[in-house]
């Protein structure tokens, strides 16, 4: 049916095609002015339509097609190097020796300016300290008690459930002490910055001895190519040998930066070790269940997949003949006879 109608369509298109061919030949050989004018119009209309189409696509691309950045790449700062962080790998955990060193760097260097508000002392237990060490550390600070019967608030030594205290009472005090710049809280810093660990490591180790020739550094700021805008209020803080590691690791600038960055990664993502372990369990169980489900599917479908459909042709008159040995039953022998 389809083939036949297609054939008919082709046949009817035949004369039309020849007619069109003739017209084309005729107008090409004609010198009539009205015909050449209409040809002109056609050319103009075609060109105008093409220009309009290209124009609207260009206008649309101009409006919606480009990605827009608030800053130029130069203003964004230098993109940090990709470092092969061991703890980021699929099968690796945090190096807890590193965390302990990183926390030491935070406490001895960064804590004088940066808070770590979301980290209570109890989370240090088992990850980088013993209970006694963490308790002793908490007790170094004083915290407000609940109001007593007279409504007075007293002071008590810190406990494991207390949070690491901030260096400043509030943001205003922090700004006042830092030339107007606010040292941000570091608890979630690794997640809060594009580039995460790479960025903070590059930032801490990226202060040049001198700003490059031609760079404009405003007073009170320091040149760091990794910081957006290149002028950062934090001066270089890490210098070789600044801290004394108890495990004897040489405290080079990059070693301290690496340790503190991994520690900050732990602060932002303390569940990482647990999460990876859970991930492996999920994958193992998931794969087993998937394998099982494939087997069950094949098992359940096996009867359907292996059955054979046989076509029994309708019975002929000879089959109906009551004198045949079994009337109404088609015999193998007369299958193909009628
Ligand atoms: C003397 C005070 C001071 C010390 C010590 C200090 N910082 Fe800062 N830090 C600042 C200030 C101020 C800023 C805000 C900079 C700005 O906005 O220009 C800052 C900003 C930062 C930022 C955010 C950069 C950004 O992209 O916004 C990070 C990360 C940081 N510091 C990490 C550290 C680490 C890690 C240490 C310890 C090794 C440390 N800082 C020690 C004062 C300090």
Q: In short, what is this structure?
A:
The chain contains eleven helices and four strands, in the order H-H-H-H-H-E-E-H-H-H-E-E-H-H-H. With 338 residues, the chain is an all-alpha fold.
Please provide a written account of the structure.
The protein is an all-alpha fold and 338 residues long. It has a domain at 77-119 and 163-270: Cytochrome c-like domain (Cytochrome Bc1 Complex, Chain D, domain 2), CATH 1.10.760.10. The chain contains eleven helices and four strands, in the order αααααββαααββααα. The protein has helices spanning 2-29, 33-65, 73-76, 96-108, 131-139, 171-177, 189-192, 196-205, 253-268, 272-306, 317-320, and strands at 142-144, 155-157, 222-223, 231-232. The strands form two sheets. The protein has a two-stranded antiparallel sheet. Strands 3-4 form a two-stranded antiparallel sheet. β3 and β4 (231-232) form a beta hairpin. α4 packs across α9 and α8 runs antiparallel to α9 (253-268). The radius of gyration is 41 Å and the shape is flat. The structure holds heme C. Heme C binds at residues 105, 109-110, 112-114, 178, 181, 183-184, 189, 193, 200, 203-204, 227, 232-234, 237-238, 260. The site of heme C has 22 residues, from α8. Belongs to the cytochrome c family. Keywords: Electron transport, Heme, Iron, Membrane, Metal-binding, Mitochondrion, Mitochondrion inner membrane, Respiratory chain, Translocase, Transmembrane, Transmembrane helix, Transport.
């Amino acid at each position: 049916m389809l083939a036949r109608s297609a054939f008919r369509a082709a046949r009817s298109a035949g004369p039309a095609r020849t007619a069109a061919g003739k017209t084309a030949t005729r107008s090409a050989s004609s010198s009539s002015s009205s015909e050449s004018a209409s040809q002109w119009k056609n050319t103009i209309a075609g060109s105008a339509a093409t220009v309009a189409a290209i124009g609207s696509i260009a206008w649309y691309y101009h409006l919606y097609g480009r990605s827009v950045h608030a800053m130029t790449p130069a203003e964004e700062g230098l993109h940090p190097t990709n470092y092969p962080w061991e703890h980021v790998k699929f099968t690796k955990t945090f190096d807890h020796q590193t965390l302990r060193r990183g926390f030491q760097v935070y406490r001895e260097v960064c804590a004088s300016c940066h808070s770590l508000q979301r980290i209570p002392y109890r989370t240090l237990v088992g990850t980088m300290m013993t209970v006694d060490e963490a308790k002793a550390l908490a007790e170094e600070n004083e915290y407000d008690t609940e109001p007593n019967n007279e409504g007075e608030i007293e002071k008590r030594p810190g406990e494991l459930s207390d949070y690491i205290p901030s260096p400043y009472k509030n943001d205003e005090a922090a700004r006042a002490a830092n030339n107007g710049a606010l040292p941000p809280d570091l608890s979630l810093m690794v997640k809060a910055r594009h580039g995460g660990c790479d960025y903070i490591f590059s930032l801490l180790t990226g202060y040049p001895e001198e700003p490059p020739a031609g760079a404009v550094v405003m007073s009170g700021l320091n040149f760091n190519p990794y910081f957006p805008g290149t002028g950062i209020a934090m001066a270089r803080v890490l210098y070789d040998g600044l801290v004394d590691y108890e495990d004897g690791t040489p405290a080079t600038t990059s070693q301290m930066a690496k340790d503190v960055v991994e520690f900050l990664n732990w602060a932002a993502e303390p569940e990482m070790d647990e999460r990876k372990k859970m991930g492996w369990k999920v994958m193992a169980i998931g794969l087993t269940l998937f394998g099982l489900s494939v087997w069950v599917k094949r098992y359940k479908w096996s009867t359907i997949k292996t059955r054979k459909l046989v076509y029994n042709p309708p019975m002929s008159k000879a089959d109906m003949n009551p004198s045949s040995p079994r009337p109404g039953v088609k015999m193998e022998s007369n299958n193909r006879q009628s």
